[in-house]
Amino acid sequence: DLDECAASPCKDHQYCLNTDGSFSCKACDASCVGCTGEGSEKCKTCASGYVKEDEKCTDIDECNLPEKVCTKENQDCVNTSGSYKCVCSEGFEDKDGTCVQT
Questions:
Q1: Cα–Cα distance measured from residue 23 to residue 76, given in angstroms and rounded to the nearest whole number
Q2: What is the pTM for the complete model shown?
C-alpha cells in the first residue's frame, strides 16, 4: 500500500485517512483549525471560541467570563458551541434591540 496521505492531498480543514490502495479526506472537528486526525485532541490549533485544555480544544463558556458579554438590561447569556448568544430574560421580549417586559 502506498501512503497517499504523505503528500497531504486534503484541504486545510480535513485530515487524510490512508486506506488499502487509496485514501479519504475526513472533516476536522468543529473545534479545530487544521488537524492531524479525528477529534478535538488532534487539532493543529483551536478554532475561535475554543481553548486548548488537557491537550483538547474545549469550548469557552463566554457566559462565565468575569467580564459580562451580554450587557443590555434584562438580557441573559446562553453558551453555544464555540460562541454564545444574548437572549431576553424570561418575561421580556426583544423590541428593536431592547428587552421590554411582555
A1: 47
A2: 0.79
